[in-house]
Design a protein that fits this description.
Elements (H helix, E strand, L loop, with lengths): L1 H5 L3 H28 L2 E2 L11 E2 L2 H12 L10 H23 L3 H19 L16 H21 L6 H20 L2 H23 L8 H19 L4 H8 L4 H8 L1 H16 L12 H7 L4 H24 L4 H26 L3 H13 L7 H9 L3
Antiparallel strand pairs: 1-2
């Protein structure tokens, strides 16, 4: 134990490696279980795949997370992460049950609200605006409402981007890296270990999901709900007042703009889609093919090209926010720019592309860009695929 106290920088590395190994080990076993039990995502008019695909990826990722989080006990008090793990397990159960039995959207929403409500009652929530609009600490009732609203929104935003290969897992890897850097700089080793476990568990799944053929598996609602609540826990931890966070806020960092920048594309795209559904008189949870990733696919982009473009757009938002913070821009302006970019890269891009595609010249240009995103399954890519498939 003393060794880890002196070399605590080893903990996230060991966590990552354990989570990576655990997911890699369990992944083929989950595929066999899915085929044997017919737990498959079958094609329909709304799905993009052409044949049934195993949908127990969430269990594989959660197993990897569990393997990595054995390190958390070495970083001292781990009550917060243990509590988060309990709710992650509950989300896995609800999501996997939904994958198999199809829960109603409103029942799942009710369960999510109840879970976050209990979490806030036990561990606290978003309790400080850190100078945004000159607001500091907020009343408990408002803390409770804002945390539930934000967390449920984050969980569903992560769930709804799971439409093309590698998008939800690749996006959460990116977000976990960014949040992990923040926790490293703030000395929050407990959350850093959770970020490292998330990255380690998701990376092998991402490779199988994107490049595998017989080893391909979808993460399912079980996996996206687990990753959604992890993202929500990261945001709650950052926006819950404690010494390390106050240090960054005092230095002019807009903590709310930062968290929104990391989650900007899923959040704003989900808001756009839900508002559009309601304007049409439909339920906000009514499934359709109007998400940003559907736009890229319809324009001819490959799955990996779509994933790369969306994650790149979100990375641009994060980099712009960082530059604003580095230049000493006010917290309010940091937020406004993040919101503007989020809207530009979701609402603006979606409707702008629809309009530009009416021009034959622009349509051909977009198609040429889309063709660049297609990767031939030969050479190294084919060898990598065969290695993933165990051939």
């Amino acid at each position: 134990m003393q060794i880890f106290k002196e070399y605590n920088w080893l903990l996230p590395i060991i966590t990552f490696l354990l989570a990576f190994w655990a997911t890699s080990w369990i992944h083929p076993k989950m595929i066999k279980l899915a085929f044997r039990s017919d737990i498959m995502d079958k094609p329909n008019c709304r799905k993009l795949q052409k044949k049934p695909v195993p949908v127990l990826g969430g269990l594989a990722v959660f197993f990897g997370l569990s393997g990595g989080l054995v390190c958390v006990s070495l970083c001292g008090n781990c009550s917060y992460i243990v509590l988060a793990y309990v709710f992650m397990a509950l989300m896995l159960y609800i999501g996997t049950f939904d994958d198999i039995m199809q829960l109603s959207s409103y029942m799942r929403l009710f369960i999510e609200i109840a879970c976050i409500g209990v979490f806030v009652l036990i561990a606290g929530g978003i309790d400080n605006f850190y100078g945004l609009w000159h607001i500091g600490r907020i009343p408990y009732w408002l803390e409770f409402v804002i945390t539930i609203f934000a967390s449920v929104g984050i969980i569903n935003a992560i769930n709804l981007i799971d439409g093309v290969d590698g998008l939800s897992s690749g996006y959460c890897v990116m977000a976990s890296i960014v949040f992990g850097v923040f926790f490293f700089l703030s000395g929050d080793w407990e959350m850093l270990i959770l970020a490292a476990a998330s990255i380690g568990a998701l990376v092998p799944f991402f490779f199988h999901n994107v490049f595998g053929k017989s080893s391909k598996m979808f993460i399912g609602d079980g996996g996206t709900l687990v990753m959604g609540i992890i993202m929500a826990v990261f945001v709650i931890r950052i926006l819950n007042e404690h010494q390390a966070v106050v240090m960054f806020a005092d230095a002019g960092m807009g903590l709310i703009p930062f968290t929104l920048a990391v989650l900007s594309i899923p959040v704003f795209d989900t808001l756009r889609v839900m508002i559009a559904r309601m304007l049409k008189g439909n339920s906000p949870f009514h499934p359709d093919k109007t998400h940003l990733h559907h736009l890229f696919i319809n324009e001819g982009f490959s799955h990996i090209g779509t994933t790369f473009c969306i994650i790149s757009l979100n990375t641009v938002v994060i980099l712009v926010w960082w530059l604003l913070y580095h230049w000493g821009v006010s917290v309010d302006l940091q937020l406004y720019v993040v919101v503007l970019l989020g809207l530009l890269f979701t609402v603006g891009l979606y409707f702008g592309t629809k309009i530009l595609s009416r021009s034959n010249r622009m349509k051909k240009f977009i198609r040429r860009l889309a063709l660049l995103s297609h990767i031939s399954r030969k050479g190294f890519i084919l060898k990598f695929q065969n290695w993933l498939d165990g051939k």
